[in-house]
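Feature request, filed as a ticket because there's no other form

It would be nice if the structure record came with a short human-readable summary line next to the tokens. Right now we just get the raw output. Example of a typical job, pasted below so the devs can see what we mean:
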Amino acid sequence: MYRGDVDIIIELPYYDNLSVLQRYYYENLMSSSSGALDFMSGGKRSAAARARHARFKLPSVSSRTSPVKSKNAVLVWRSSPSESVELPSINARFLMKKHRYTYGVVDRGESTFCDGLGKTDCLNRTTEIWSTKGHTPSEPVFVPNPTADSDDEDAGMLLSVVLDGFSETSYLLVLDAKTMKEVGRAETGIAIHHGFHGVHSPQPVTKQG
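Raw output as currently delivered:
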């Protein structure tokens, strides 16, 4: 077992205050409602209502089991609201390891909800965005390329269920995680609700019992 001091790094989206709750009022979510238009254009939807993607470091944490003096985490960096990802995910092979890329939905203020998918390069602190006007994506799920080198972090695909606001139907979007370019899509012909924290199963799920 390792004994000594370690740095704990955490990366997360956060909000400056609770104004984000107003975003999810029914009248503010419905793009066709007068309430949503007022919320969007009337100055009520400030940057505080959008996530800030940030990385914090808790330096020199002792591995000793005896009580130690508490300390404050240090802000390493944070993105602007227009480039911050929410519902973040990474290549699962890099869980609890140093990683470079984080994926999530972005909110640039072009709709009443999220309006794109983002890939944040945590080294260069830049975000590459996929978006289509009137299309609302859900949380992206990263699927690694099984034949890629284990250290090729962004080798794989991003899956996201996207609502086409014009046709009022959803489709499964497939993006190349390296380039954030569309590889394909599967139309469903129906509208699928936006859920949180989806998973990808490489094998068919069978019923038990």
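Something like this underneath would help us a lot:
DSSP finds three helices and twelve strands in the chain.
The helical segments are 20-23, 26-29, 34-41.
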